[in-house]
Amino acid sequence: MSATPQKNRASRRVLAAAAGLATVGALVAAMPAGAQERGHGDGKGHGHHAPDRTVDVQLLSFNDLHGNLEPPAGSAGTVNETQADGTVKAVPAGGVEYLASSLRTARKGHPYSITAAGGDMVGASPLLSGLFHDEPTIEALNKIDLDVTSVGNHEFDEGATELARLQNGGCHPVEGCYEKGKEFKGADFPYLAANVTSEKTGKPILKPYTVWKKNGVKIGFIGVTLEGTPNIVTANGVKGLKFHDEIETVNKYAKELDRQGVKSIVALIHEGGAPASSSYNYDCDSPGAGDGISGPITDIAKGISPKVDALVTGHTHQAYVCTIPDPAGNPRLVTSASSFGKLYTDTTLTYDRRTKDIVRTAVKTSKARKGSKHHPHPKPANPVSANHIVDRDQTPANDMTALIARWNTLAAPIANRPQGYISADVNGRGSTDPEKPLGNLIADAQLEGLAPADKGGAVVAFMNPGGIRADLVYKASGSEGDGVVTYGESFTVQPFTNMMNVLDLTGAQLVSALQQQVSGANEASPKILQVSKGLTYTLDMTKSGADRVVTGTILLNGEAIDPAKTYRVAMNEFLAGGGDGFAALGEGTNKLVGASDLDLFNDYLAAHSTAAAPLAPPATDRITVVQ
Asked: What is the pTM of this model?
């Protein structure tokens, strides 16, 4: 099966001021001086001179945008930057107006430039995009001139049929067209889903790969999402689909591309790792750093064929530019650009016209700070690969400003409606603690809404931490006053509109669910459930596996959990399906479906806060953590 790009925009891009270069390789040592093309000329040669043997192809990449068209609020809208004195500074970043400016600036002077993404462009999006089923984000990515992206797990939040609509266009089957006389055109770029097949046909539901071409230069892109997508997406979202091993899939299509004569290949993989530092400018290849990165992507990278020259990754929302040896022992670049459009990665692929392959002998990384006209990178003596901040002190892109204003006008009647009031920031996504103030607030809202006998009779509620998508920020945004929580803000916190379930669980199953937070699939990367008031226990992280949950400390309203007793437990439909590795929660019986999580959250805010008496952030005293 072959695939070609839907369009080649590189020749007509508007190129603005230079940002930093990046590379996956130095040139072959024996190559004569001046034999490479460093982003100058058209690659065709001039006069009687033959084309240069090598040409530098710029690869700009980002991941996990999640429909964040406007700058993310609170701590979700900053990146950590290590200063010269070793201190760490939080730098405001992100917003599609600035992402567009950064990318257009970076393309300046690079006639061979490709922009690629590592999945989760949409899904779990703020209201500005989510209210319109992410059509605004696809429109923005078209304007940014995205060339290709892999699918991520969140591309399946609304199922394969809706994903196909985002690719191919057409108005929403239920809500129709959002603007009179305008039909949604779909993505100008291909979504790649090499390891996602239809159960009926056995074939990929979208293109498995695409080939970018210009003036004889050909670079193939293979796109995959994590094999474990069904464990982190609602059952309806992945119905009728199979998700296959990332390594086997990439290697399969790398061979196919190689047979077609495409020797230069980049894998877009929606799976990632955790760098040893949270700072975006951490050098994970520096002496003494060890591997510099851990997590699933390390084993994936070590198993992917040497035919693949670079890996653009995502999913973990981390920032890194690292090298991990391929199976042949050669260094290979693995990158991730945080999330929400706060960073982009600039990489130079040195393409050898004779071998049609990427020259890959060494990788160097840059600690340069910012890539805007206010903070230009000096041109390095050797190409480098680096993440760059999408800083907000550069000039925003006018077309993106207009796009945001247009969709905000459509969303305003709903988005600006006050839901409640807070006295200070209530941190959720931005909190690094196992127990999060916003997690407690959400769980309390779910318990209160579903405790009445006719609503389910819940005695405790669980909230998955990954479902908390933002912080509630006190500082005013737009025309609202300080402390006002609008519908747009509450939607951004809980954008999935999951229906709530109340189920019967035995005390033994309840304890098992708590143990599954830190054991089995979640042992390496714990997923700590946010619990409603009344439930308390101790988490001893000095131990391993299920033993981390000290069972003798688990109390509900001051009483020990009875293994044989039946408890009514509230949770969203994702957890009720056993999502995030909580198999015990999937064993619940006597299910009652209640209101949506968002409705319960907004009802709670309205019932417990006024402008004169705003809601204070809940205390985090339910889980005692021993480190």
From this structure: 0.85
